[in-house]
Design goal:
There is one protein chain. By secondary structure, this protein is an alpha+beta fold. The chain has helices spanning 2-7, 11-22, 30-37, 41-53, 93-101, 108-114, 149-163, 174-182, 186-192, and strands at 57-70, 73-86, 120-126, 140-145, 169-173, 197-201.
Length: 206
């Protein structure tokens, strides 16, 4: 990611480009861009301005829910806010998508290293974005014992900020996974019966 970030003008810009490329129909406010990319609001505004001038993104209104309290009752109202959307007419959209989505953050050995402090992982399966299968139900499945879920969730959040996409994932204790496997649980079978890759496999699955 370091080399590609330099080519693209910095890691923050790379994160934003992936965010909009992976979510072409979704609008983001500057605050949401900063939160999703794990960058400061000032950096987010700077990069949004740059990408807006290039016509890579376009301004548009986003509808969000806002909670207010009145007389002890919580009210939810719709609020329209200025946000930014990917510009589908951008001339180099497909070329950039191929380049940015096929880069080194998807290398499987690096995915394994991300979770080395996550506990005794016995099964790590990747699918979806990691194998470029849009029809997958899940992107990542982690099974193990003594799992440090806060560490795992932090690693996932960091990966999401780099990839630009919310990951669909499941974290299961070995006992629960084994039970589901023996019961031919539909969720587990949907993961195992469709395209995936097993990066760690210390559980007998067949």
């Amino acid at each position: 990611m370091e080399i590609l970030g330099k080519l693209m003008g910095g890691v923050a810009r790379l994160k934003l480009m992936r965010l909009f490329l992976f979510n072409p129909d979704q609008g983001f406010t500057p605050a949401e861009v900063a939160a999703r990319g794990l960058i400061t609001p000032a950096v987010a505004r700077r990069e949004i301005s740059f990408l807006g001038k290039l016509k890579f993104i376009r301004p548009g209104m986003c509808e969000r829910e806002a909670k207010t309290s009145k007389g002890g009752i919580t009210l939810i109202k719709k609020k329209r806010m200025l946000g930014w959307y990917f510009n589908r007419d951008f001339a180099y959209a497909e070329s950039l998508r191929d380049l940015l989505i096929d880069s080194r953050f998807l290398e499987h050995e690096k995915v394994v290293r991300r979770f080395r402090h996550g506990g005794r992982i016995k099964l790590l399966i990747v699918s979806g974005v990691f194998i470029k299968d849009k029809n997958s139900r899940l992107d990542l499945l982690i099974v193990g014992d003594g799992l440090r879920r806060s560490k795992i969730e932090q690693s996932l959040k960091t990966m999401e900020s780099e990839i630009g996409k919310e990951l669909r994932y499941a974290v299961l204790d070995t006992k629960e996974f084994t039970y589901r496997l023996d019961m031919c649980d539909k969720f587990v079978r949907d993961v195992l019966d469709y395209p995936h890759e097993r990066l760690i496999e210390k559980i007998k699955l067949e």
